[in-house]
């Protein structure tokens, strides 16, 4: 494995992006912005309420699998998969 | 014997027989089998096992009930207990798997090159796990006494015996495969009643969609709007907007639960059982899939149970249920004392309102919502029997995982690691089994005679994990420089601040009357409730650790090199001993 530092930097960048989204969907849309979002609707759900009780969980799932897939590619690129 | 009891016996003892069969098939032969299931568990299997390990009696029985009465405020549990897996998948699991050891304190020992750090970690782990396990044992006792009408103590004894057989015999290997079976039992037991109820109320069989649909009564009103209307008419807070102690408190609460989840040793341990770093990342994803199946259904269960309860007591506005005509489930739960009616105005009818002076439902225990839900909705008896088996599966699977975390931290970290380093593998395996047996007896005893602090224990477990273990692990991976001294100072101050805050508001060891500051909003630090304080404890931990690092200097070069190796997947051996 060559260039450990570059691999780690790319990983950190990915983690940063993922955690930013993680923060926005739960603390942002489900908590801090819940009142303005509740003006909108998704079927019978108020939108902010939906993010807090449904949407954030679906987003977490998407994030973990997306991160896993990107990291597998990164492992190949740097020949780090062992 | 009536039909319901017969079905319940079949469901409960049928599933027990299944767990025994699996334990016999997967019994452990080596320490590697006993601690990490030989390192050969696939990500999907591991995901299901984590699901069962993680989802306890609290998730299965209590959470939907909490949501039913807290409404939007209950979201902290939904986001908090799932969002932690994102942190696990990105910040801890892959690197700890790469390092490849058996236990969390062992990782701390290697990274912080300090026996003191290892002992501090063992202490945090045992306090957190033992407090958690009391709740599971109580859940087992309650499930037996309610559904099979056996004595609470006898029910507890049967539960202890079942866990003993498969956890002591099979170790991590036996536990993993029984947990997979328990996950399946649990998820069917949770979703089948939810599907029935969603179908009844909205015509949509998928509870997640049913919750956002219109009612099936032809009125065209959305279920959540109807629920908001019903509860506000009676003076309760609006369901979809009712807050839990303000935005800052909800924020801190959610953070505490998230990092507490990521720091619980019995969950982290499960990531040591998979064969590679890539598998550790994907099993966090599979774990969250398995957990989300229950967690996205729970809000529907909560809201629908609340609506059904309200509709039973007050079928149309102003028309109240006559007490003498109350349904059978009402009488059953009255017997347990968890549901209480008091005819304050003497009209023989049930008035259920938010006003304490006129409310006649003087006690509606939140914990009965999931268990009573199928009966409230008039579902067939086999569904009720299945819920009993599911509740037991949830409690037993979590208890087994916690027992393993406790016994491995004693036999592997304290005995092999610190006290008697020349312990042979065979003797260590034997010691692990003896310690686990003792742990079962201790937790059974505590379940039978719950100490005064039992009610606050789960919150304490999360607070401890959030303020001590998670920051130590995360800093150990993401900062090469952080030293043993810094980490120990961080862990001690984080856990210290959290315990102090909890004790000053809830009483020392939760003994009533010993709290030196009252347990009420105005006395709380920025309005943060004691349950949510783990977030502040974690911040203190990070701050103290970096301050001490500045003063005492960085970790030695060979440790920094070890951290560099942890960060790249490379070739991974099965989790091994040093």
TrEMBL record, chain A:
The keyword Cell inner membrane does not apply. The keyword Transmembrane applies. The chain crosses the membrane at residues 12-34, 49-69. Residues 5-80 form the Sodium symporter small subunit domain. Keywords: Membrane, Transmembrane, Transmembrane helix. This is Putative solute symporter protein. The lineage of its organism: Bacteria, Pseudomonadati, Pseudomonadota, Gammaproteobacteria, Alteromonadales.
């Amino acid at each position: 494995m060559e260039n450990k530092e570059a691999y780690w930097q790319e990983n950190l960048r990915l983690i940063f992006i993922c955690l930013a989204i993680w923060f926005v969907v739960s603390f942002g849309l489900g908590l801090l912005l819940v009142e303005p979002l509740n003006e909108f609707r998704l079927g019978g759900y108020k939108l902010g309420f939906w993010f807090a009780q449904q949407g954030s969980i679906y987003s977490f799932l998407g994030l973990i699998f997306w991160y896993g897939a990107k990291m597998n590619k990164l492992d190949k690129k740097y020949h780090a998969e062992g | 014997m009536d039909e319901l009891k017969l079905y319940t016996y079949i469901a409960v003892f049928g599933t027990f027989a299944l767990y025994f069969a699996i334990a016999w098939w997967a019994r452990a032969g080596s320490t590697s089998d006993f601690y990490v299931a030989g390192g050969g568990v696939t990500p999907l299997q591991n995901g299901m096992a984590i699901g069962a390990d993680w989802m306890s009696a609290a998730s299965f029985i209590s959470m939907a009930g909490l949501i039913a009465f807290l409404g939007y405020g209950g979201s902290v549990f939904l986001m908090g207990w799932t969002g932690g897996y994102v942190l696990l998948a990105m910040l801890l699991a892959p690197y700890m798997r790469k390092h490849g050891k058996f236990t969390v304190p062992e990782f701390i020992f290697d990274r912080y090159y300090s026996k003191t750090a290892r002992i501090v970690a063992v202490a945090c782990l045992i306090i957190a796990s033992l407090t958690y396990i009391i709740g599971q044992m109580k859940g087992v006792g309650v499930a037996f006494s309610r559904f099979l009408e056996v004595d609470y103590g006898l029910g507890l004894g049967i539960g202890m015996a079942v866990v003993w057989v498969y956890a002591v015999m099979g170790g991590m290997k036996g536990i993993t495969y029984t947990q997979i079976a328990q996950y399946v039992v649990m998820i069917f037991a949770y979703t089948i009643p939810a599907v029935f109820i969603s179908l009844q109320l909205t015509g949509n069989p998928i509870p997640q969609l049913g919750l956002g649909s219109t009612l099936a009564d032809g009125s065209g009103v959305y279920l959540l709007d109807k629920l908001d209307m019903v509860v506000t008419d009676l003076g309760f807070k609006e369901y979809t907007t009712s807050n839990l102690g303000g935005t800052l408190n909800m924020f801190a609460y959610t953070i505490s639960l998230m990092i507490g989840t990521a720091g619980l040793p019995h969950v982290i341990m499960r990531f040591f059982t998979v064969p590679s770093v890539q598998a550790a990342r994907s099993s966090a994803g599979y774990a969250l899939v398995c957990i989300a199946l229950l967690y996205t259904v729970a809000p529907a269960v909560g809201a629908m149970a609340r609506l059904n309860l309200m509709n039973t007591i007050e079928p149309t506005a102003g028309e109240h249920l006559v007490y003498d005509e109350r349904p059978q489930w009402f009488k059953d739960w009255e017997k347990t004392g968890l549901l209480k009616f008091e005819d304050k105005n003497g009209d023989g009818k049930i008035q259920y309102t938010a006003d304490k002076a006129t409310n006649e439902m003087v006690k509606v225990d939140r914990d009965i919502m999931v268990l009573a839900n199928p009966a409230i909705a008039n579902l067939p008896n086999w569904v009720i029997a299945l819920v009993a088996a599911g509740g037991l599966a949830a409690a037993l699977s979590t208890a087994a995982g916690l027992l393993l975390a406790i016994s491995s931290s004693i036999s592997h970290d304290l005995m092999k690691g610190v006290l008697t380093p020349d312990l042979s593998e065979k003797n260590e395996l034997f010691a692990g089994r003896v310690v686990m047996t003792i742990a079962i007896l201790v937790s059974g005893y505590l379940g039978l005679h719950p100490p005064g602090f039992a009610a606050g224990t789960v919150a304490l477990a999360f607070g401890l994990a959030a303020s001590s273990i998670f920051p130590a692990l995360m800093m150990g991976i993401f900062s090469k420089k952080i030293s043993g001294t810094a980490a120990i100072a961080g862990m001690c101050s984080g856990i210290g601040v959290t315990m102090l805050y909890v004790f000053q508001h809830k009483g020392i060891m939760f003994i009533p009357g010993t709290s030196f500051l009252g347990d009420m909003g105005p006395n709380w630090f920025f309005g943060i409730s004691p349950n949510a304080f783990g977030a502040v404890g974690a911040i203190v931990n990070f701050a103290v650790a970096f301050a001490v690092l500045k003063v005492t200097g960085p970790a030695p070069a060979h440790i920094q090199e070890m951290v560099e190796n942890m960060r790249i997947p490379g070739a991974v051996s099965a989790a091994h001993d040093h």
